[in-house]
Structure formats: C-alpha cells, structure tokens
Amino acid sequence: MDQARTSEGGWRGLWPRLSFRIGIASALIGLIAVLAGMLTVTGAAAISDRLDAALRSERRIERYSLLSTQVTGFLVIAVEAFQSGVDAELRDYRMGILSDQIEETFGRIRADLADAVEEAVDLGLDEQSRRATLSLNVARMEALLNRSLVELEGAQAPEAVQGAVNEFLRAFDPMLNGAIAQERRTRDQILASISSTRTAQSRAALGVGAVTLLLLAGVWLGLIRPAMRRLDLLRQASREIARENFAVALPETGRDEIGQVFAETNRMASALAARKAAVDADWARLNSIIDERTAELQAANAALERTDRDRRRFFADVSHELRTPLTVIRMEAELGEAQPEDAGDSLKVIHNRAVRLSRRIDDLLRVARSETGEIALEAGRVDLGDVASDAVAECAAELSAAGIVARVEGGEVPDVTGDANWLRQVVTGLLQNTCRHAAGTAEAVLRVRADGGRVRLDVIDRGPGIADVSAVFERFAQGEGVGRSAGFGIGLSLAKWVVERQGGTIAITSPLEDGTGTMVSLVFPRAGDSVRA
C-alpha cells in the first residue's frame, strides 16, 4: 500500500510538467508507430506464407495433371502396342520409359504431400489429417497403377489388354480427380484466407491511423495549442519589458515549465520596476545635486566677479590716492631744483624717484582699468636709443651700487612701433638683472643698431653667464645668472610677452665667446612695417 501511494504521488508530481506530458504523448505515438509496423510486417509475412502455400498447392495440381497425362499416354501406347503386334521387347522398352516417368512424378507428389503435412502442424490436427488422407489416396493410386502394369504384362490377347485398361481407368480417374479437386479447394481456401488477411490488415491500418489522428488531435488541443498561446503571452510580456513597461502580470496558474517561466518573468519585471524606480530616484537626486552645484558655481562666479571688480576699484583708488602726494612731491622737487646749489642734487634724486613711482602707478592704473586683467599696450613711434638712455638713467643708483658703468653705443636708428613706457621697463629689468648677477664686472653695454629692415638693441654684461638658457623664459623660472626683479618690476617671462606682443623678438646668448657674459637681444621691425600691437 505504501509503495502504491508513493508511486501515485510520484505520478501526480510528474504529470503537471509539460516535458513529462509531451514525453508520454511521444511515447504513445511511438508505440502506435511500432504497432503499425508490427502489423504491417506480420500481415505481409502471413500473406507471403499463404501465397507460398497457394503456389505449392498449384504446383501439386500441376503434378496431378502431369500424372494424368503420363498415365493416359502410357495406356494409349500399351493398347496400341498390343493391337498393332509390336515386338514384345520394343513394347516393354517403350512402356518402361513411361513407367519410369510416372514413378518419378509419383515421387515428387509424395514429397510435396510430405511437405504439406509438415506445414499443417501449425494449422491444427484436422488439416494435418486431411493432408495425410491425400497421401494415402496417392499411395492407393500408385498401387493401382502397379497392379495394372502387372496385369498388362501377363495379358496376351488385345481384348485382355483393353479390359485391364478400362478397369484401371474406372478406378484411377475418380481417385485422381478427387485429389485434384481437394487441392483446388485447398488453393481456394488459401486464396480466400489471403483476402481476409488483407482485409483485416487494412482495417487494422485504418484503426491505427484513426487512433493516431485522435492522439495527435488530443496532443495538439491539449498540449501544443495551449502551450503556444501561453508562449504568445510570454512573447508579448517580453516586448513590454523591452519597452520599459514593467507592469506585467502573467498568469501563474500552471505548475509546468511555462508556468514557472511566467512566475520568474513576473518576478523579473517586479525587480526591474524596482530598479528603474531606484535609478529614476538616483537621477532625480543627481539632477538636484547638479542644480545645487550649478547654483553654487554661479554664486561663486558672481562672487569672483564682485571680487575682481573690487580689486580693480581698489587698484584705482590706491593709485589715485598715491598720485596726489606724488604730484606734490614732484612739484616741490622741481621748486627745490631752482634753489641754491647745495640742495639741487638731493632734490634731483627726489624728483627722479617720484617720476619712477609715478610710472609704476600709471602701470597699476592701466592694469586695473583693463577688463581682462592683462596689460594694455599703447602703440606709438619709439626711439630705442632714447629707451636705452632712459633705462640707464633710471637704474643709475643700482648700477653705481653694483660697481657697474653702463654706456649706450650706437648712433641714430629708425624708430620702431611699440609702447615706450613698457619697452623702457623691459630694458630697466634687464639692467636690474645685470646689477644682481654681474656685480663688480666693471661695465655693461647697451648697443643700438639697425639690422637690415629691423632695429636691434643688445644688453651685454660680463657676468658668469647662464647655465640653462632654454628655461629662463618660463614663468617663475629663476636660473643661475637670471632672476625676477623685485617689487613691481617684470621678469623675463613677462618681458618676452611684452616684446612679442609688439611684434619683436627677444633672445639670450650665454656664455659669450670668451666663456663668460650674457647678451640679451631685442629686435623690432621698423615703424610702418606690419606690427602686432
């Protein structure tokens, strides 16, 4: 009982599975196919056996007919031989040949009947007895023939021969005809059984075909068609999920594989919907953060703009506040220069310093008034010889303190186009570098000359030189022998920018031919040539 319950529970557990039901249906269809094949093979074998039996029966009928012909021929020859007075030896020879043929035919008939009796073992005792009766009938015909031959051999008169022949025929013909009739009935029965077998096989084939069609219809209506409909629902749900529509609710009533896929698809859609909601929330938070950071950046930019405006306003205010007292200083110094000689030199120094400070304040004002915070250059005609002389005069005190005598060489040269104030500051910065790095070297030379269609200004010192010339123009670079000027002075990087913005070039050669010294060369196009201001 326990095993039966376990088996029943196992079948109930397996039956909802679609693969199990499809397997059962496939097995049934396969079993029907096997049965159909077996019916076909069995029917064909039965029909083949019956055809063989019918052929053997037909062959026995032919042997009976042959026997009848041979016996008739034998009797005719025997009667003619006696009536025509043929020699006894020749008569015996001819009758001997026919007798041998008849004996051979009887032998074949006996062999056929023996085979027929063996075949009848599977057909039942009645059929086996009937065929054995045929064998006895043939034996009687053979015995009758032998007895008639003995009588014919002993007959001397034609009347006796004719009487023996008639007697034989009266007894032999019924037995032979009965044997032939029996074989024909046997043949007809075999042919009838073939027809009935064919009919039964046809009916069986039709029955198998009908059962197969019913089974296929049941499989289609009960398994395949519902499964295809459910797969269509699954395909539609997959399309909706691909469109990011996760509101999918597939029926989870079935317990087969498709029902399990439905359940997993519903869970997947729910998980994707939750994930999409989380992603949307994260995007919303990210956009909110981006908006907040954008607002903060905009506020910071606004604050920077305010700071920049305040910076420019501060420079302007400071410059304005400084210009007023410096103007007074300059006026007082100019008045002092007109006083007695003992105060003239001091007042001249005060005047020069005031002028220099005024120039620095002008630079501050120009930077402060610039919208971009960059230096605004003012282009005009400039004499590089005057620029060199003004720079020497401005740096006279530093040169004297460094023990350097600066001189300007060269005659009149064509004017160039540029900002005289900033060109002067560039040369002044170069002289200040000379004071710091070439102190005690006796002299510095500022050579002004025309060089083809350009004007050249070389600032030459006899200092130790520069070890790495390639880096001196980089911002904040400070190599050996070159540095940045103190205060509001300009470094070499800014000097390079100022010169190139005015269409010129700046180059450094160090060391010179004797292994020491540095030469800074400023080259500008003549005034009137194409200049980038």
Give your account of this protein's structure.
By secondary structure, the chain is α+β, with helices and mostly antiparallel strands. The chain is 71% helix and 8% strand. It has a 5-stranded mixed β-sheet. A hairpin with a 2-residue loop joins strand 4 and strand 5. The radius of gyration is 71 Å and the shape is rod-shaped.
Structural class: alpha+beta
Helix content: over 70%
N- to C-terminal distance: 113 Å
> How confident overall, as mean pLDDT?
76
- SS summary, helix count: 11
The helix/strand order is: HHHHHHHEHHEEHEEHEE
Number of strands: 7
Spatial sequence of strands, sheet with the most strands? 2-4-5-7-6
- What shape does the CA trace take? rod-shaped
From the alpha carbons, calculate the radius of gyration and give it in angstroms.
71 Å
Uncertain stretches of 5 or more adjacent residues? 1-9, 476-490
**Beta-strand residue percentage:** 5-15%
Which structural traits does this protein have?
alpha+beta; rod-shaped; disordered N terminus; 11 helices; 533 residues; 71% helix; two-stranded antiparallel sheet
Write the layout of secondary structure elements.
Blueprint: H1 2-14, H2 18-84, H3 88-119, H4 125-154, H5 158-242, H6 257-337, H7 344-369, E1 380-382, H8 384-394, H9 396-401, E2 404-409, E3 416-418, H10 420-437, E4 442-451, E5 454-461, H11 492-501, E6 505-509, E7 518-525
Parallel strand pairs: 2-4
Antiparallel strand pairs: 1-3, 4-5, 5-7, 6-7
Helix pairs in contact: 2-3, 2-5, 3-4, 4-5, 5-6, 6-7, 8-10, 10-11
